[in-house]
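User: Structure please.
Assistant: Input sequence and predicted structure:
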Amino acid sequence: MEEKEQLKLLKSFTPARIGEGRTGTRPLTESMLRLRRDHAAAVDAVHGHVDNDFLMKLGLFTVETLSKSREVYLQRPDLGRRISPEGAKMIQERCMHKPQIQIVLSNGLSADAIMANGNDVLPALLDSLAVHDLQSGTPFFVKNGRVACMDHIGELLEPEALVLLIGERPGLASPGSMSAYMCYKPREGMIESDRNVISNIHQKGTPPLEAAAHIGAVLKCMIEQQLSGIHLQV
């Protein structure tokens, strides 16, 4: 196989920028324009917002973290790990206490991830839980949440297991990628090795419907084994 054919085959397997070519010391104009376009999409994903109408159609109410603005959220990751006092009160008033499975969505670092995948993942996840005979609590949306906000929510609702569907840090090839973080009996002070994650949930990565089915299976294992993280056998 000639080098050009080998390069073409390799590029068909990845969106990574390989074999882009150069003109002297500079990238090709086409390559540079694509890079600027993809960088702009990543910035838009970070600073974007999830439409209220979209959340209402999914039947989700919204709470905020201690990050009162997007700027504060990006500068102070610690504030995105705790729900605001107003949000905590709303969660306790509107959510089922001690559910078997608690589902939470958050824009995280990519609002595009929720807008692009939430409409597929959430209904399919509820179906997957039903297939595995698991009961879901009251899903809701956390604005400006970090992964560890699931620990604070665990303190508030005491679920057996919690899954957080959150926007990932956008890359130059996937600004709308979602992750699903899962934990058995989340509580404040939990370490990262106690969590399980399914990442790269988007149309060109792990398809949303496939991801939802897999999330349900992982949560079933957590309930049966009463643990999560590196010791979970899936």
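The two ends are 40 Å apart (CA to CA).
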